[in-house]
Amino acid sequence: MIKGLIFDLDGVITDTAEYHYLAWKSLAEKIGIEIDRAFNEQLKGISRMESLELILQHGNKSEAYTLEEKERLAAQKNEEYKEYIKQVTPADLLPGIAELLRDAREQGIKMSLASASKNAPEIMQRLEIDGLFEGIVDPASLKAGKPDPEIFIRGAELLGLSVKECVGLEDAEAGIESINAAGMFSVGVGSKDAMKEADYAVESTSELDLKTILDKASAK
Ligand code: BG6
Ligand code: MG
């Protein structure tokens, strides 16, 4: 029986995935690298430094910077990103998410957050939903990020549940891989192609409905 939902944040609960993209695009342009939305799919779900490495590889500039310079570039991206998230309010929950969180609470389904973002606690507070969650996995405490299953396993531990009692929700290919590897039922939000490995996929958060998710997960 499903007793817990473990959420990704960016692109599932709120549209900060767009802000990550805009901030990376602007940083990349400053160092003469062009990125587009198709390329950006690979950046979803992975850490700040890993994202920078992929961008540098894409622009054939992997060897162009020292570690210190790369840390400065990543910090520069984060500064711009933090400017964007200052605007986040409860009105920025993606369609259907407020209802999903409410239904889960009403039915005693516990929730935790499994986001790679170090900015997650601030965003959860700005959305005013941090009180609905049992906990947030600290990405700095992980041995390996998505697609490794560790973050979703830790999300289940925060709830005191087994992975089989939980469902993971994601918009990133790396995230779906992580949920599946954890042995958890995966719900994907996004294009059919990007979400092809998900156990159950929808194209928009507005299609997420607690009863459907629980029925599909129990049927697996
Ligand atoms: C994930 C995003 O949630 O967090 C990635 O999907 C992002 O795009 C990662 O790189 C790390 O975020 P932050 O806020 O710690 O730079
Ligand atoms: Mg995401």
From TrEMBL:
InterPro entries tied to this protein: B-phosphoglucomutase_hydrolase, Beta-PGM, HAD-like_sf, HAD-like_SPP, HAD-SF_hydro_IA, HAD_sf, PGP-like_dom2
Annotated Gene3D superfamilies: HAD superfamily/HAD-like (3.40.50.1000), Putative phosphatase, domain 2 (1.10.150.240)
SUPFAM superfamilies xref list: HAD-like
One Pfam family of this chain: Hydrolase
Membership in a protein family: Belongs to the HAD-like hydrolase superfamily. CbbY/CbbZ/Gph/YieH family.
Name assigned to this protein: Beta-phosphoglucomutase
UniProt source species: Alkalibacterium iburiense
